[in-house]
Structure formats: structure tokens, C-alpha cells
Specification:
The chain is built from 11 helices and 13 strands. The protein is of the alpha/beta class. The chain folds into 3 domains: 84 residues, Winged helix-like DNA-binding domain superfamily/Winged helix DNA-binding domain (Arc Repressor Mutant, subunit A); 97 residues, D-Maltodextrin-Binding Protein, domain 2, CATH 3.40.190.10; 101 residues, 3-Layer(aba) Sandwich (D-Maltodextrin-Binding Protein, domain 2). The strands form 4 sheets. The protein has a 5-stranded mixed sheet with strand order 4-3-5-13-6, with helices on both faces. It starts with 7 loop residues before the first helix and ends with a helix. Keywords: DNA-binding, Transcription, Transcription regulation. It holds the Pfam family HTH_1. This is LysR family transcriptional regulator.
Length: 299
């Protein structure tokens, strides 16, 4: 069996001899002696187990096996250079992947601005997103399924670091035919008898439940209808006057619907504080760049 523990310098000498068709010319191009080049090529031939060159007074010509070896070796050497370059770029955060957890819309708002700026400045880093509730996001961060997550009302999660980014106001989504559609702004007293539609489970459901708890503090519990749909179909149900729904101001700003009206809420001092969270053990260079951009855009 041939010895495959090759020295890549020896491979380079083979490529040079093949290029110049001469051991002497190859040696001169490297400012080395011909005997040194010849000896190292011979060592490589012994390791590979085949003769790569036919040697004569007129120079050196590749054997059939040598031609095959050089073709494959040249490609492999180039691929190795590419891999080394990619690894170095990954360490610098110039290429790679960034996996982000979120539980609200990307339509508009500071979160969308952070993601947009990051992609503009780092177009070669692939962004992947996962809609998730807070518990799922923290697990994802700690097991390195996620690199960062945008989460509301962040507490001190063990093993994680966070950066408070911005606050969001609440809006109420109602059908354009609703009695309050033209009000522009409403108080809890105006909507306490309404039926609130919530998506079941998932990220949006957790956020809506939190919002409703804040709105109903010290008041009678609101009527709730759980629907197994996403945010888009939730608003479709609102448009059909099946109920009303709470949304963030940035979500409302990113919507252009004639069949749904978005109303501001007053008398609700509590805002939603969003933070960027990441694992304290994260070593992804892309994540570090993402946090730096978030710091600049925070507040």
C-alpha cells in the first residue's frame, strides 16, 4: 500500500516540473538546486507508488499515471487553498451562517433595521430564521441551534447575555367595518367586551397572552378565542370581524390592508421591551458582528 502521508511542498515541485518540462528549469524558478528538486520528486513518487515522470536528457515528461496525478493534484491543491481562505474568512466573520430566533414580524421596526443593516454589510453571511417562543429560544441558544434571538421582557437567563434594544407600543387590529375602526385611538374600557383572537402556542401566542395580561390588570378578564393559525390568517379573521387582535406598533406600520384598521391604545403605560439575547459561550464571529450592529442601532 502506498504511503499517503504527503508533504504538499513536494506536490508543488511535481507541478513545477510538469509546467516547465524540466527539473533544471523548475529548480531555477525556485532558486534551488536541480538535485534537490529531483530528490523530492523521487520521494513523492515512492510515497505514491508510481513513476510520475519519464526522465531524459531533453527534460522530463509526465507518464500516463503522472498526467492523471497532476490533474487531480492541481485541482485538490486549489480546493485546499479555497478551503483555507474560507476558514480564514469564517474566523473573521466575513462568511458563515447566523441563525436568529424571533417571535414577532420582520415587516418593520428596529429589529428589521438591525437585520437589514447586517445583511447589507455582510452579504456573504447566510441568515436563517426560526419563529419560537422564549423558552424554545433559550434552549436553542444554549444548545447552539440558534446564535441570537429577539425576545420581549428578557429576564436574567443563566448562560446568556442580552442587550436591551427598544420598546414597542401596542395597537389593536379591528375589522375596517368595526364600530371603532375610525376611532384612531381607544382605551381598555372601549374594548373590554370584545373577543380577542390569539394564535395557539408558538411565538405569537406567547406574546399576545402577555399583552392581554398587561391590559387586563385590575380589570375583568377579556374574552379569548384561540385559533390555530399564523399571524397573516389571524388578521384575515379580524378582517372578517371574527374578533380583534393585539399587535405591535411596528407590525401595524408594516401592514398595508384596507380590510383591517390599526388603533392606538391609551391608558396602557406598559410597553414591551425587546432585547437581543445570545449564549455567553457563543464563539460565532458573525454573531459578534450582529451584536455590534445592534448596539449601534439600539435606542
Amino acid at each position: 500500500m502506498p504511503d499517503v502521508s504527503l508533504d504538499f511542498r513536494y506536490l508543488r515541485y511535481v507541478l513545477l516540473v510538469a509546467q516547465f518540462g524540466s527539473f533544471r528549469a523548475a529548480a531555477e524558478s525556485e532558486n534551488m538546486t536541480q538535485s534537490t528538486i529531483s530528490r523530492r520528486v523521487s520521494i513523492l513518487e515512492r510515497k505514491v507508488g508510481v513513476r510520475l515522470f519519464e526522465r531524459s536528457h531533453n527534460g522530463a515528461r509526465l507518464t500516463v499515471a503522472g498526467e492523471r496525478f497532476v490533474q487531480t493534484a492541481a485541482y485538490s491543491a486549489e480546493r485546499l487553498r479555497e478551503v483555507i481562505r474560507e476558514v480564514r474568512e469564517t474566523v473573521k466573520g466575513e462568511i458563515g451562517q447566523l441563525r436568529i430566533g424571533l417571535m414577532t414580524s420582520l415587516a418593520a421596526g428596529p429589529m428589521a433595521d438591525i437585520i437589514g443593516d447586517f445583511h447589507r454589510l455582510n452579504p456573504r453571511i447566510e441568515l436563517t430564521f426560526e419563529e419560537t417562543a422564549s423558552d424554545g429560544a433559550i434552549v436553542g441558544l444554549l444548545c447552539r441551534r440558534l446564535d441570537a434571538a429577539f425576545l420581549p421582557n428578557v429576564l436574567n437567563f443563566p448562560g446568556c447575555e442580552s442587550l436591551q434594544l427598544y420598546e414597542e407600543e401596542l395597537c389593536l387590529a379591528v375589522s375596517s367595518e368595526h364600530r371603532l375602526a375610525s376611532a384612531g385611538m381607544v382605551a381598555w374600557e372601549d374594548i373590554k367586551s370584545e373577543k380577542f383572537i390569539l394564535p395557539s402556542g408558538s411565538a405569537g401566542g406567547e406574546l399576545d397572552e402577555f399583552l392581554l395580561r398587561q391590559l387586563s390588570i385590575g380589570r375583568s378578564a377579556p374574552r379569548i378565542s384561540i385559533q390555530y393559525v399564523g399571524r397573516e390568517n389571524l388578521l384575515n379573521l379580524v378582517a372578517r370581524d371574527c374578533g380583534v387582535a393585539l399587535v405591535l406598533a411596528s407590525t401595524a406600520a408594516g401592514m398595508a390592508r384596507r380590510d383591517v384598521a390599526f388603533l392606538r391604545l391609551y391608558g396602557t403605560a406598559k410597553k414591551i421591551e425587546f432585547s437581543l439575547v445570545w449564549s455567553a459561550m457563543s464563539e460565532n464571529p458573525a454573531r459578534k458582528k450582529f451584536v455590534d450592529i445592534a448596539r449601534k442601532l439600539a435606542r
